[in-house]
Amino acid sequence: MPDATTPPLILLIDDEPELEVMARYLEFEGYSVVTATNGEEGLVALASCRKPCIVLLDLMMPVMDGYGFLRRLHDDAALCGLPVFVLTASFQTERMAGVVGTLHKPLHMEVLKEAFAPYCPPPGEENPAAG
After folding, report:
1. Whole-model pTM above 0.85?
2. Which residues contact 24 (CB under 8 A, 6 or more apart)?
3. Which of 2, 7, 10 is closest to 116 using CA atoms?
């Protein structure tokens, strides 16, 4: 289990060029970020790193899209409770298993941080749900 000095980990799965900009912003804010450009890479990342506090997931990607990633996540007993925010340019309101929220592109970083704060507290702050 990470201690108070370990930055919260975010898994960011998106094939957009802005992926690296978003990752750098979150790292600047004190988070650890692992990136993947499709759902298959995201599953590999989950298998090889500590459990993230949140997954930020695009739906439309090559190789394995976000829907495929969510199905695989839901089928894995160790990962099925992992909170996922869908990143999308569409305005669909369909609720998917495991998804705790939808964030519409283009993303505003303050809105992003505010949305996932209950699941992934800012670095240096204790998670009230953990105690």
Report:
1. no
2. none
3. 10
